[in-house]
Design goal:
The longest helix is centred in the N-terminal third of the chain and has 24 residues. A hairpin with a 5-residue loop joins strand 6 and strand 7. With 344 residues, this protein is α+β, with helices and mostly antiparallel strands. Helices cover 38% and strands 21% of the residues. The protein folds into three domains: 76 residues, Arc Repressor Mutant, subunit A; 150 residues, no CATH class; 82 residues, no CATH class.
């Protein structure tokens, strides 16, 4: 009677894969490295050469994503090793596995271009954040609630995969200087979407200059290279908590010299309910002493930046800045410039 072939459970297959990575890990850190022949001898169970070759290709990609490189010395028999004092392939593998749902979500978002409803996209994002407790992605990327498109499809996944791991070569033109081109090495730490545009934050180093903290709009990236900087040590920015970094501003521009101020304003009755449902900023509250006929008083605590001014100007006659005086004057000056464009 023929013996019934046993089928491995998913758990058994997973344990087997983890054990394989543990063996690779022990052998790859040895100064002399390891050969395919030695690997075949080490694995007690039957493992074919093709299986080891595929595992090696996967491990090569896994190391690259974590800022390491699998070095191969060719000769009579190829030897593989990793130049590092410590290696944790198992953690690399498990972290990537946890992140896979999010990678799938990003892929879906990149193809949806606003076809999916906001509540559905947000629910997926929340679900991923719950799944990724062991991966430092929740502090590396955030979604805007009014997400509707993602035009920077080419560079987005490259920067996303490099977050807090490795440097990439990049060239871009600043938003306020479209004729100027900056080229250097970028160490991405955080991605943020604001008004349908994506921005990357991290240290940026131009040749012959000191590294600076940089915000890069992905739509203004002209070129990038994620191949030549794998072995470069990652530079950490002075920002410890990006959630806190964005707490005091509207948008993505955080001017160093500006302080948080209480900005008091009046909003028209027809816009009041909209702002209550979708506040300009989390600190927004009512300010009843400013109430007048047709307008309600409100206030927020933020730094002045260009995004704040754009929000104010966008509201037009539905908003009046009461204080501070310097912001009120800025609004008047901008409105005067606008009026000159329409002078006959």
């Amino acid at each position: 009677m023929a013996q019934k072939k046993t089928t491995k459970t998913n758990a058994e297959k997973e344990n087997e894969k983890i054990n394989h990575f543990k063996i690779w890990q022990e052998l790859l850190v040895k100064p002399e490295g390891v050969t395919y022949k030695e690997l075949l001898n080490v694995f007690k169970e039957e493992v074919e050469y093709e299986t080891l070759r595929k595992e090696k290709e996967y491990i090569t990609g896994l190391l690259k994503k974590n800022g390491l490189k699998l070095i191969e010395e060719t000769g009579r028999s190829s030897r593989f090793f990793v130049e590092t004092d410590s290696l944790d392939l198992v953690s690399f593998y498990l972290n990537e596995k946890v992140a896979q749902p999010y990678v799938a979500i990003l892929d879906m978002l990149s193809k949806s271009k606003g076809l999916l409803p906001d509540f559905f996209l947000n629910s997926l994002c929340d679900k991923y954040q719950q799944l990724s407790e062991n991966v430092n992605v929740d502090k590396s990327i955030s979604f805007e609630s009014d997400y509707d498109c993602m035009p920077e499809l080419d560079v987005f996944p490259v920067i996303y995969n490099a977050l807090n791991k490795r440097a990439i070569g990049i060239s871009f033109h600043p938003a306020n200087k479209p004729d100027e081109n900056k080229e250097g090495v970028f160490f991405p730490e955080y991605l943020k979407q604001y008004r349908s545009n994506w921005y990357a934050f991290g240290m940026f180093e131009e040749e012959g200059k000191e590294s600076v903290f940089q915000k890069i709009p992905l739509c203004f990236v002209d070129n990038y290279n994620d191949e030549d900087y794998v072995s470069l040590k990652f530079q950490k920015s002075p920002i410890d908590d990006y959630d806190e970094y964005f707490d005091d501003i509207i948008g993505v521009e955080n001017p160093d010299g500006n302080k948080v101020e209480t900005i008091k304003f009046r909003i028209s009755n027809r816009m009041f309910q909209r702002l209550r449902n979708k506040p300009l900023h989390p600190t927004q509250s009512t300010c009843k002493e400013l109430d007048i006929k047709g307008f309600k008083g409100m206030k927020i605590n933020v730094k002045y930046n260009i995004e704040l001014m754009r929000v104010i100007l966008n509201l037009g006659p539905d908003i009046e800045i009461v204080e501070p005086a310097h912001i009120r004057k800025r609004v008047v000056k901008n409105l005067q410039k606008t009026m000159k464009l329409y002078d006959e």
